[in-house]
Design a protein that fits this description.
- The complex is a heterotetramer, with two copies of chain A (about 325 residues) and two copies of chain B (about 325 residues).
- Chain A contains twelve helices and eight strands.
- Chain A has about 325 residues and is α/β, with parallel strands linked by helices.
- A six-stranded parallel sheet of chain A has the order 2-1-3-4-8-7, with helices on both faces. In chain A, strands 5-6 form a two-stranded antiparallel sheet.
- In chain A, strand 7 (about 215-220), helix 8 (about 225-240) and strand 8 form a beta-alpha-beta unit.
- Chain B is of the alpha/beta class and about 325 residues long.
- Chain B is about 40% helix and about 20% strand.
- Chain B has helices spanning about 10-25, 45-55, 65-75, 85-90, 95-100, 105, 135-140, 155-160, 160-165, 215-230, 245-255, 270-285, 305-310, 315-325; strands spanning about 5-10, 25-30, 55-60, 80-85, 115-120, 145-150, 170-175, 185, 200, 205-210, 235, 240, 260-265, 290-295.
- Chain B has a seven-stranded mixed sheet, sandwiched between helices.
- In chain B, helix 11 (about 245-255) packs across helix 12 (about 270-285).
- The chains are: A alpha/beta (about 325), B alpha/beta (about 325).
- Chains B and C meet through helix 5 and helix 12 of B and helix 5 and helix 12 of C.
- Bound molecules: thiamine diphosphate (2 copies) and magnesium ion (2 copies).
Chain lengths: ~325, ~325, ~325, ~325
């Protein structure tokens, strides 16, 4: 399987129900508004620690996670606000987590990098690059051993592929034929390290295929392409009960984190990619096809905005965990015996 | 006295695993050569045929990967027993043990506990030289979020796995490689052990020897000899290296007023230091002499027997340390 | 007093690296984002342009691989300075640090020493949560065959690299991430420091505070406040965590008869335990009170500021611990 | 580059000077006799700890190491007696090391698994599977930075390829274009784990090629094939200043170590491979081509035997290191300053 292709002439948006297209757009806008607000809140010191924004990459989470079914599991990285949002983790709980409040989705203990939600089967929020990969393999192994028909989708950056953890994890998944969807978010940089200075083989699907795993690559700036590629990949995982490696070619518009002076790339390069911005291009396509009006777009935007403001208000009002509560919850309380 | 069977530590560990695999479908064993090879220490010999490749899962040489897969499988509802062949190789998996297994419950706000058991062989004494002779179980006891066990007896080899598997959090079990061939009695009506308390393996009024794992037997040997010289040692087997059972230690030290800690780890920063610190913090005014330590020399373990013996704690060194506390020197 | 320049710890670390790169062709810096990014903590900003990609070598995310490559490059006659971005990620490289770098000299019969310097940022205090806030430098001090340094001052940030590079064996340098922005005076005629001795950073007769790294400043702050209450603290900065400078510690404790150890590590099995044990072994009869410890709570580091503050040693806790030794409690 | 091929009809032994062919034979016999004696000495408890025999695989060390030049470096595993012997480490010093005596090549401290020799640029003797790979990369990096024209040959088993260390090391070597010869001794088993249960992709050259590295595969039971493939690979490394991955397909005739009950493979499989025994097949070929007489073979065998016996006598007579000496040599003695 190679790069997903678009039939010439007809825009892919016409291949799908309008509702789906609008939902994808909406989800991208939700991530964007949520994160823009986070950046402001960071400036106001409401949010602290590390904050890794996903701005520019929204098509990936929106397109990919929408393709999963509720029983599937997700393992994500420290750049995972979008993934959590689209997965249905409550925006209030996410924002409260960013504030460090007890009502946060991880009781406020982890902040931006450690969003967790058992109900959503959202297994973090891992801040060790590559650290989620073996865990995803284990989740899939548990499904296989318990004969459950579920997929584990593991998101990671292209930088993680240089880690031994990637090598060991994908080999295990392939060797044991486990239903893992390896979702590589190739945004071309790992902090300041460009892909070509990280991998001797920059064609990531070639690397992954060497484990005898099926692969594909999708335009990560195009939410429909992402969605289609993910649907197809998931179908393969379910039918073969084997792993699949899917690369999303994308780009982060913002700095790596709030501390990054961005010395390693040209402004011009960033501007060039911004022209491919996933939201405005997609909304333009929808408009061109008559599926979206400017008014409808503004409605979506307003709703996203309101969702965020509600979340901020919720987070503001929420309470802090006490040291006693927090420090007591390291291991399970001792039982008799 | 009730009836007992004479078995080896290996057999005891094997029975424990067998029982777990038989009684709980969620339990499976995973690690390098646990299956067709029969287990490096033959603990799982025959299991592959009995339980099949899914539950006795041979892994590639990928310590980080399969320990992490154990974390994931535990999250997914299984009760994995991951065997890292020896503690020496566990360094490759340390990130998954510390940053995933140990932190997950807390970091996820209590949503995701990791009911994972990791077994590994530990210790020196078989002339395997520097890279194959580490004693790092005391080092692991530094990590918040995990439990660390060191079965030193047949009972503990037989009994600790069950409560470890019942524990909702990660438990590391360190089996001293020299113990596998040790023989001992297991009561036929053996009903299990806890993983919360240290055990007094010998009572005595003059000095407390505190130890664990492979060193228990050297401490007991030293105690036997010291008894001949009129010094009665109480010997405490820590059993659980994290969390430490302070009460049992302090109870004893408050009675004997003297303590010697015997630890196979490299002296600096070994568990013996922590035990010393706790005694000082909790029983300082009960001490009649400084707490003493008998540990390994801080040297990569040499291969020749006479050098390995010289590097490790030995009964003679323990005897010297004890006598030192009474102002006696052995010449 | 001689003239001095006011610089940051970051600038001091930067000057040290710059000097090393300028003076010795064999020195090169290697690690994640040390080059084009300018260094995660901006320590090597501008070096890439000045020294080029061969000597300021950006690595992929491959901690085990590039630390091991540092071992090999050292064996091959270079003087690598490997930067592991933070101690949190060094767990991935631990096998190469312990089983290769630390053991090599001895294991090879003295033929192959490893003149490798590994730098890493350490510590909590920036609300980076559980996986990014470890303080494991004391844990590393358990490993035979390496030296472990913890520069806490501008002088040490400036001076320790040179003797570390001159050392024929592996040296780990832990820079507390909170110190990079600290300002201080560096004498213009600064002539270097040793990496063998602890330093008395404040003299006092009543109690000895023993600490290192980021905690030095909290200990000094506590000492200031205690002085107002008439308690004069001597403050020892360990500087070298392995091998420990026992003489400086015991000298002080024999004069003050009281010791409090302040350590950012999780309490159990932290370096504070080893220091306590040594004091008990070497100066037991000089002690007027139990040795006390102020360490981090044994919890994965929480993100919110009030919880992080509560988990870490703070001047107030140090003050309470000191007063506790004098039977005073602070209410 | 793929498997080395033999011109049909003419035996490859005729392509080379007779002296070379005899030297290769001799070296294989030396390893065999040395190790057979070691097995006996193990039974007599003169040698203790782990002992991993290379019997069956001699063609690899003999053919490959003979192709290196003296300035090249070698990094090996715990199964490295043969490599050390062929590299010119003194048999006396190796045997003394196996005995744990001070005259051993590592002062007796390491025994069988930790042979080192600075003069021979023999960097161990590493008992952590995969542990030598990053070190080899570093040695080559030092050469590159110091503009020395040398190659580092790193030996490892096929089992090591599943380790993250392999992945990280070969990527670094390829990315930085370092002169490393990756010598994979594929003996089909890692302890009791067959290749197919270790790697999802069992074609090891395919795995290696995914790092954009040149690869080849050689018949590791045929010393001439090994030699030719290694010479060719080294030439590529020297001319491209880039890494090369060379697989030697071989088989170990003995147990993994002296503790291995060999439950995981059939006797018949072992017998089948023994028919391809590198020594008797090669000597038969040499005889068939008139390059070797039975007498000459017996001479070689006797010399090898004598070399071993001298080494045993040397080791027997050698002294032990004292604890004081041994324990003092952990770090360099403290200097002033
Ligand atoms: C093991 C490890 N090493 C280093 C870091 C520091 N770090 C955090 S993110 C990052 C870059 C990761 O890049 P990539 O995987 O491409 O993901 P992206 O940030 O581009 O989404 C680095 C080096 C880390 N968190 N974990
Ligand atoms: C990191 C690590 N894990 C496990 C072991 C135990 N062990 C020693 S040799 C070996 C098999 C290695 O197989 P391979 O790499 O194919 O080399 P071979 O022994 O076949 O020559 C194993 C599992 C080890 N020494 N190091
Ligand atoms: Mg990236
Ligand atoms: Mg093999």
């Amino acid at each position: 399987m190679s790069s997903s292709k678009r039939a010439p002439g007809i825009d892919a948006v016409l291949r799908h129900p309008r509702e789906l297209m609008i939902a994808l757009l909406k989800n991208m806008v939700r991530i964007r508004r949520f994160e823009e607000r986070c950046a402001v809140l960071y400036g106001e010191t409401k949010i602290r620690g590390f904050l890794h924004l996903y701005i520019g990459e929204e098509a990936v989470a929106a397109g990919a996670i929408g393709a999963l079914s509720p029983e599937d599991a997700i393992v994500a990285t420290y750049r995972e606000h979008g993934h959590a949002l689209i997965r249905g983790v409550s925006p209030d709980a996410i924002m409260a987590e960013m504030f460090g409040k007890r009502a946060g989705c991880s009781r406020g203990r982890g902040g931006s990098m450690h969003l967790f939600d058992a109900a959503a089967r959202f297994y973090g929020g891992n801040a060790i690059v590559g650290g989620g990969l073996p865990i995803a393999v284990g989740l899939a192994l548990a499904d296989k051993l318990q004969k459950r028909d579920r997929v584990t989708a593991c998101f990671f950056g292209e930088g993680a592929m240089a880690e031994g953890a990637f090598h060991e994890a994908i080999n295990l998944a392939a060797l044991w034929q486990l239903p893992v969807l390896f979702c590589c978010e190739n945004n071309l940089y790992a902090m300041g390290t460009a892909l070509a200075r990280s991998e001797s083989q920059t064609e990531l699907t070639v690397k992954a295929a060497s484990y005898d795993v099926e692969t594909a690559s999708a335009d990560g700036m195009d939410v429909v392409a992402v969605h289609e590629a993910t649907v197809a990949a998931l179908e393969r995982v379910r039918s073969t009960q084997a792993p699949f490696f899917l690369e999303y070619k994308t780009y982060r518009f913002r700095a790596h984190s709030m501390f990054d002076p961005e010395l390693y790339r040209d402004k011009a390069e960033v501007e060039e990619w911004k022209k491919r911005g996933p939201i405005h291009n997609f909304s333009a396509r929808l408009k061109a096809q008559g599926l979206l009006t400017e008014e409808a777009f503004l409605d979506i935007d307003r709703e996203a905005h309101e969702e965020v403001e509600r979340a901020v208000a919720f987070a503001e009002a929420a309470e802090w965990e006490t040291p006693e509560e927090c420090f007591a919850d390291v291991c399970a309380p001792e039982t008799t015996g | 006295m009730s009836a007992s069977q004479k078995i080896t530590y290996r057999e005891a560990a094997r029975q424990a695993l067998h029982e777990a695999l038989t009684q709980d479908e969620r339990v499976f064993l995973m690690g390098e050569d646990v299956g067709r090879y029969g287990g490096t220490y033959a603990v799982s010999k025959g299991f592959y045929d009995e339980f099949g490749p899914d539950r006795i899962r041979d892994t590639p040489l990928s310590e980080l990967g399969f320990v992490g897969a154990g974390v994931g499988a535990a999250l997914g509802g299984m009760r994995p027993v991951v065997e890292v062949m020896t503690v020496n190789f566990s360094l490759l998996a340390l990130d998954q043990i510390v940053n995933a297994a140990a932190l997950m419950r807390h970091m996820s706000g209590g949503q995701f506990n990791v009911p994972l058991v990791i077994r590994m062989a530990t210790g020196a004494g078989r002339q395997l030289a520097a890279q194959h002779s580490h004693s790092l179980e005391g080092w692991y006891a530094h990590i918040a979020g995990i439990k660390v066990l060191a079965p030193a007896t047949i009972e503990d080899a037989r009994g600790m796995l069950r409560p470890a598997l019942e524990d909702p959090d990660p438990v590391l079990i360190f089996e001293h490689a020299l113990l596998y061939n040790m023989q001992g009695e297991l009561p036929v009506d053996f009903s299990g052990v806890d993983i919360r308390h240290a055990a007094v393996r010998r009572t005595g009024k003059d000095v407390t020897l505190i130890t664990y794992g492979g060193m228990l037997w050297k401490a007991l040997e030293a105690a036997e000899q010291l008894a001949k010289d009129g010094i009665e040692c109480e010997v405490i087997d820590l059993r659980v290296l994290r969390p430490l059972d302070d009460a049992t230690i302090m109870d004893s030290v408050r009675r004997t007023h003297r303590a010697v800690i015997v630890d196979e780890g490299w002296r600096t920063g070994s568990l013996s230091a922590e035990v010393t610190a706790r005694i000082v913090e909790q029983a300082f005014y009960d001490l009649d002499a400084p707490v003493a330590r008998v540990c390994s020399e801080e040297v990569p373990m040499p291969y020749p027997k006479h050098l390995e013996d010289a590097a490790l704690p030995q009964p003679e060194k323990i005897i010297r340390a004890v006598k030192g506390l009474f102002g006696k020197t052995d010449s």
